[in-house]
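Q: Hi! First time doing this. I have a protein sequence and I read that you can turn it into a structure. Is that right? Here it is:
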Amino acid sequence: MLRLGVQTFFKTQLQSRAMSSLLLSKGLIDGKWVSASSGEQFEVKNPANGQVIGSVPNMNAKDAQLAIDAAKRAFYSNEWSGLTAKQRSQLLKNWYHLIEKNTQEIAEIMTAESGKPINESKGEVVYGNSFMEWFAEEARRIYGEIVPAPVQNRELMVLKQPLGVAALITPWNFPLAMITRKAGAALAAGCTVVIKPAEDTPLTALAVAKLAQDAGIPKGVVNVVTTNKAAPIGDLFCKSPDVHGISFTGSTEVGKILYRQSADGVKKVSLELGGNAPFIVFDSANVEKAVEGAMASKFRNCGQTCVSANRFFVQEGIYDKFIEGLKARVESLKIGHGSSADTQIGPLINTMQYNKICGFVEDAVNKNCKVISGGKPLKDVGELFYAPTIISDIAPEAKIYNEEVFGPIVSIIKFKTEEEALKIANASQRGLAGYFFSEDIQQVFRVARRLEVGMVGVNEGLISAAEAPFGGVKESGIGREGCHHGIDEYTEIKYICLGNLKYN
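A: Yes, that's right. Below is the predicted 3D structure, encoded as structure tokens:
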């Protein structure tokens, strides 16, 4: 379907559901839909076929400053932070219900610009919207404390107050969920936000922002700056005294730059960075469940998720059985354009990512690793499609042994002992997520504690939920998103000492 021109696609599939109201071509600043001050635009293309979906403003630091100014006015005029927690909660619920109502339309936009299968896009809308629902409820539970005083004539109070303006920099692989997970928490706390979505997927962000506006959230509270020149805007966010918090999801390399740039202002920073997730299958595992978990963890969004299983360690006793089961499942995956309901694997997001995946496999082959399945481009499907691939006998010097693979490649390493698996798994400086399969309860508790990651999936390949804290250790980030801890990233703790009180 997406081989058709975009205009034809939208006319034949989307007009009846008012897609035109959510397919937007301008940024949002201070409640107004605006072009870039320079007049520049850039095209958004469908990675499945290279077709242009639309164009959006190519904004610069001047435009970003206008968005910061608008967010600052909205914050200090008390149009948002001055509302009661119940009022903010209700407006966030309005936003939640509008996203829910427009699930199909948002999913179609997401599939068109990201290439992910339509069923995955629908799933992301539901998943991402769960954060909006969660934080709408949590807005009324940002509690303070009364601390017992050391003397009789004092009362000690602790309040949680909103930071102010928060800058949210979101990635292309989850263009809705990463916005709702951040903006939901920030707005619940009473902050206002400036969102800079990824250049590959700005249309989903604009659609969601339109629904925030329709939900009655005041002007200037939610602003969206679109650009394909991210560095100057990121620099402004980090150095502006009017931005009080930065939340970024993306690569570790970029996260380190933002962290350094924020240092002079001692700015509050929340970073969800790259992963290199180990996936360990012990001899004690239920192999069928392990294969199912591997498929769920590895091939969602064509392997382009930060918590994708990256390094597969399989104990020698069940090594052959696991590979046999995994190979059968991988080779049955349906590959194609995301608009088809039966598609399970779509394209890689862009040429850079495609070339990186090709390079990983070529390097592995040159180092005598064994390609069990796949290992080749699928040019007959599209320019950015790559076959789901299984590689074994991984040499320690191979790139896929040491680096994060953001694509559909399973690299399998055989091990003998639990100690050996943990040593290799923990050798990475990344520590976002980790997975292991075992039916030995002693081993479950032992390994779960010893894996050096922020999140552990035990006999489970899908672990993210609004109720759970999301984040990593080592070079995989700072802070947590989701759950009640997510709001902490957007609040400051204030201590108030009331003295010279008389109770008698």
